[in-house]
């Protein structure tokens, strides 16, 4: 059975948020991927947004892997990734791999999100992940029509059913059944990324026994970005998530995560967050709070 762990989040709206018509009460559920999808699903969850017509719920999502999102009920969802605005986000959407924060604005309803690893991307579509980098697009634009329709229908049912991951597994497992020829290289790169520390693209290529050209092809095709940017994102997220969980009063030294000094960390924060870590952490981020503080 596909279980889920409830993460209820309730916050009082700040005066500024109330004036802007923003409601911050929302509930998230993490979904545990079944055994058949381990290594292919990079997290899954159901997000119940507060608000409704004329009442907007706002949250921020950190850069991360590609996600399939299905929106049910409520008003239209809009999103900003850097300077790009998606208004409205398709009701059945693919958000490609991101290297900037995503500002999401909803008006009630329910969102089911399903993260895709690079291995899943390789099995699921012939399109390069770089095509969807920092973009929302209709799911059918990246998947074969039949596969997109099957998966979209299953996710709609899953978003309202009692066993969401069972429903998703039945539709998704057949689409991901055949490993891709490049998966050994993808898996090897992921293992290096998970090690932490500071790596240059040339050092990673040497470590993996492949040319820099091959490393770039793998990173761009399946992770959606160059090796340099991918390594930067991994290092920054490892450092920032640690800081975020500690909270504003926590003690943290970014040198522990491969940074040369604090200004180096802050430059990356400007790139990935569009602001300083302190500014980001001062904003209400209820969904992100639930996901990160209850991992």
TrEMBL record:
Top-level taxon of origin: Bacteria
Transcription in keyword set: no
Domain HTH araC/xylS-type: 183-283
One GO MF term attached to the UniProt entry: DNA-binding transcription factor activity
The entry's keywords: DNA-binding
InterPro entries tied to this protein: HTH_AraC
PROSITE patterns found in the cross-reference section: HTH_ARAC_FAMILY_2 (PS01124)
Protein known as: AraC-type DNA-binding protein
Species, as recorded: Sphingomonas carotinifaciens
